[in-house]
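Might you be able to check the backbone structure tokens below? Thank you kindly.
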Amino acid sequence: MARSQGDVAAAIRAKLASGELPSAKPLKLWVGNGTGKPCMVCGLSIRAEIFEYEVDIAGPSADRRTTLRFDRACLDVWSKECERLRQG
């Protein structure tokens, strides 16, 4: 399924506004082959033949972290939208 960058950006802005996606800066980033788990933005399965990006952010308490999973296109747009929010 083809996705335009504008559609991805609109979905991310909506999820950031609703709190479904956080805008916190990543603590760590891992990259590896897809595991079949869904992307946090588009919901599509991240297949083994493409890279899956796992982003750790601070969790609800100091000793906990939350892991987010993205495909590359969604990660890039999420990063840009989060930076835009942080800059005000």
Observations:
- The two ends are 33 Å apart (CA to CA).
- The mean pLDDT is 90.
